[in-house]
Design goal:
alpha+beta, 4 helices, 2 strands, globular
Length: about 90
């Protein structure tokens, strides 16, 4: 199949980033805004590139705590030999 950036004009494709193109802080800020408006707990996964630093992940954990989030997961791409999905680069 074709990649999104191959079938859409760049201006539109920029409005639809993939999860690894969104910074962890942005993931958590959106989750925090949604969490404040609902009674139930929500959780999400931050998918990040292999190069993500430990300091970045620590800052996300602190931000999640500050925003009183009920749960989130961090998955660093390539951290497992056998992972369910793999990004295809061209």
């Amino acid at each position: 199949g074709a990649h999104l950036r191959e079938v859409l004009p760049e201006e539109l494709a920029q409005l639809l980033p993939t999860s690894v193109e969104i910074d962890g802080k942005q993931h958590l800020t959106v989750q925090g805004a949604l969490q404040r408006e609902i009674d139930g707990g929500i959780t999400k996964t931050i998918n990040c590139p292999y190069e993500t630093s430990q300091a970045d992940i620590e800052s996300w954990i602190k931000l999640g705590w500050e925003q009183q989030l009920l749960g989130f997961t961090v998955y660093r791409n390539g951290s497992r030999n056998d992972q369910p999905m793999t990004a295809v680069s061209k």
